[in-house]
Amino acid sequence: MILRIDLKTVLLFALVALPALADPAEDCVSGDVALIVEGCTETIESGKFVGTNLATAHYNRGNALSKQGKLEEAVADFDAAIAMVPSHAGYYFARAFALSRNGETDRAIADYDAAIGLFPKYADAYTNRGLLHIKAGNTEAAGADFGKAVDINPKKASHHFNYGDALRRAGDNAGAIAAFSEAIELAPDEASYFFGRGGALADEGLLNEALKDFSDAAALKPELASIYHNRGIVFGRLGEFDNALRDYAKALEIDPGRADTHHKRGALQFFQRRYNLAVDDFTSAIGLEPANAELYRSRGGAYDAGGRFNEALADYGKAIELEPEFADAYYSRGAVYDLTGQHDLAIADFSAAIKLNPDDADSYYSRAISLFNKGDMIAAIGDFSRSIERKADSADVYLSRGRAYYRNGQHDQAHEDFARAIALDPETIDSFAKILSSATSQGKRKQAQTLIEEIAAKDAAAISKALDLLARRHLDSNQAKEAMSLWQLATKVNPKDAVVRRGLGGGYFASGDVLRAAAEWNSACNSASREDIEKWQTELTASGHFDGQANGVCTNALIDAFKACATAKCDN
Question: How many Å separate Cα 7 from the centre of its chain?
């Protein structure tokens, strides 16, 4: 999440003059805070003033006390002023400000309500009440208040900025960008406005535009670490890792105490597989925030990826100690336990993660893998099924459940799962076809071929598509014999697949058998749909091998184009 700069609202201590009196009354309206308190106290205690004048003295002293940080005394003075003149909106505003600084949010909001009720065009009251709504997490109410402030005074840039901040928090990035743009137009030298818009642009995925705004903010306020931190995040998302690391370093140069910057830089180092450097950054972040469970989980991940499993287990354990309901930490520790053969401990951790997050498909899948590794196929199948119920589009889960079914002797169910996995992800067939594409015994080749044929009975189209994909990969690697084996199997399981027939023709051509190549290309052309032929004609025209019309009609010119393309290896 990109951080924001909070706009700080400062109360202007508006002093109201009393009638011409002795020196204490003059001090009560002077600019010196200490003199105001002393003068107003003498004025109040003199007994010479009543009504509005006495209320004014309490109000002025309250403002001065508030500025001194004596908030409860200030509130008492505002209470007195309001009791004397309950129709003065400014008194409620001042008391609300003091109450908010004292942490009494609900009472402060009630006073801003009263001030707005007495003076409906009180823009600053809407602004301050909106900031309290933000603090309370009520972004909708905050947006309404900031929007009202904009309506009352559209020429004040800070109103647009606050409105944009509320819209961004509510997820309306387009509205936020428009509001921040209004603020920038009114005050183009304010770094925080560019910073805010940069955050909204980044949230919206407009990374280059965000980069420009953060750079403009940095030019206006180069001493602000948050700008470099956020620009570093954008550079990282753009894949400009050196620039991202440079910005993180600049942010830490300005403010070495930023745990979040160490965390982000560590995550980037992790992404680049610099696990020791990631550990260093996560360790620095932990030194700054030793009670932050997420930091221990992150460092545990770096230890894990670097093969330092004991340190990883210790960090995951510390994260759980700090945050006993940290589901991700249980999950991560369970994965290490499983990897190191401690399947019972892994199952216990995955079970804890599931208890905390019962809708997490990955936790069921991982527990199923541990059960599989332990040899409990029935329980594994149950957990794979629960994972599928929550995430039905995962080829890996179907593939794994198929293996569990197969090992448990439930071959029909296994074949259905294998077919579903391959239909979801053709690359999955590599798990079955790898025997065919490697130098193994003929017995194993036949066993694999039989298995694929059984799976094809469930979904022949998916199997032939996957085999074609693998065959082309082998032909790209000059492994024509292996490619031919896969294409021949594909034509066996799905004889009407025109794409496979064309591929097989290319395989024959690569092996020097021109006649059989032409026969397969003719077969492909005759069995293809009009749409497939038109697609081939268009592609071959683009590659410069076909100069006829893309009309979906099979001709000798198209066969010649197949040959020319195969010669140039343009369709492998």
Answer: 25
What's the pLDDT tens digit per position in 478-537?
777 777 877 887 888 788 888 888 888 888 888 888 888 888 888 888 888 888 888 888
CA distances 550 to 501, 520, 529, 534, 546, Å, are 20, 21, 13, 5, 9
The burial of 312, by beta-carbon neighbours within 10 Å (0-12 exposed, 13-18 middle, 19 or more buried), is given as buried
- SS3 label, residue 335: helix
Q: Of 364, 357, 352, 430, give the one whose Cα is nearest residue 392.
A: 364
Phi-psi region of 83 (alpha: psi -120 to 50; beta: other; left: phi over 0): alpha
pLDDT in tens, 308-359: 999 999 999 999 999 999 999 999 999 999 999 999 999 999 999 999 999 9
**Dihedral angle sign, alpha carbons of residues 486, 489, 494, 498:** positive
Positive or negative, the Cα torsion across 187, 192, 195, 200?
negative
What is the Cα–Cα distance from 329 to 342, expressed in whole angstroms?
A: 17
Q: pLDDT for 264-310, tens place per residue?
A: 999 999 999 999 999 999 999 999 999 999 999 999 999 999 999 99
Q: Please tell me whether the overall predicted TM-score, pTM, comes out greater than 0.90 for this model.
A: no
Radius of gyration of the chain (CA): 36
User: CB of 550 within 8 A of CB of 541?
Assistant: yes
Q: Is 431 exposed, middle or buried (0-12, 13-18, 19+ CB in 10 A)?
A: middle
Which value, to the nearest 10 degrees, does the dihedral of the CA atoms of residues 143, 149, 153, 159 take? Answer: -50
Amino acid letter, 26: E
CA 365/CA 401 separation, integer angstroms: 9
Angle at 534 between CA 528 and CA 539, to 5 degrees: 110
Alpha helices in 221-307, H assignment, sequence order = 225-237, 241-254, 259-271, 275-288, 293-305
Q: What separation in angstroms does the CA of 47 have from each of 39, 51, 65, 152, 289?
A: 13, 11, 21, 41, 56
Return d(Cα 194, Cα 208) in angstroms, integer: 14
What is the SS3 assignment for 47? coil
> Which structure tokens are listed for 432?
């079955």
Do the beta carbons of residue 218 and residue 250 sit within 8 Å?
no
CA 170 to chain CA centroid, Å, is 16
Q: Do 498 and 490 meet the contact criterion of CB atoms below 8 Å apart?
A: no
Return d(Cα 203, Cα 205) in angstroms, integer. Answer: 5
> Which DSSP string corresponds to 121-138?
T-HHHHHHHHHHHHHTT-
Minimal CA–CA distance to 81: which of 101, 69, 66?
Answer: 66
